[in-house]
Fold this sequence. Notes:
Elements: H1 23-30, E1 38-39, H2 41-52, H3 56-72, H4 77-82, E2 85-86, H5 113-121, E3 124-127, E4 133-138, H6 139-156, H7 158-173, H8 176-183, E5 192-194, H9 195-204, H10 209-216
Antiparallel strand pairs: 1-2, 3-4, 4-5
Amino acid sequence: MQDIATNRAPAAPVEVSPDNPCPFLRGLVANGYVGGHIVPLPELTDTIKRATGKTGLAALFAGAQIFGVAMIANGAPFRSLREGAILDQLRNGPLDKHGAGSRILDQHAVVHEDEIARLATFGSDYSNPDGGTERGLNAAEIKTFMRANFQRAKDDHPWYWGILHGYYRIMMLGEWPVLLDILGKGDGKDRYLSVAEVKTLFVERSFPARIVALLDRK
Ligand code: HEM
């Protein structure tokens, strides 16, 4: 979905399937950085790698991880290798934690703002490198948040979640901590994920200008 004349993503967001539950991929599809259906793994990996801003060995490492996740996401790794990841068929796939996540997006991809408000309660106020202070979550607060999400799901269905415990815990490490890695502001233990930027990503499916600048780099 690129504008051929300018080679840039179109201004108007593209519709995104409710069966794409990943806020990050929804942002990429909505802004035309990748298509919404079958996306070849090298194209998907390269696009996400650009957004990380990483270079050299770190970029290689990040790329390998993203490729691995995208390869298993539809439950048919060999088909994904041949054709690509099917971004509008991710729901109920191996990465779908069925409510053990933040629950910000429901099964119909409707955003629940009360869950964003809940996310904010796990955070603190950080000094924003762009000026002022804002609410955000650092790595430790994200860990507590994920643990609480998991516990909530387990309380709802103790037997079921008991079995899936280890698997879901590992899956979660590839989501919020990676989002912190990419979108985070500030350094060290004060590097934080801005709640306002999380909200914009989930609700408007758009990225902050600094990430758009990275994505637009060719
Ligand atoms: C590095 C880039 C990525 C980031 C930063 C990212 C981030 C996230 C975040 C924050 C969530 C939300 C979890 C929650 O609501 O608790 C999520 C969910 C999800 N992501 Fe991603 N993701 C990335 C790449 C991918 C890729 C490459 C795939 C597969 C092709 C994928 C598939 C999914 C799926 C299926 C879910 C839903 C999990 C659930 O609801 O249980 N993500 N992701």
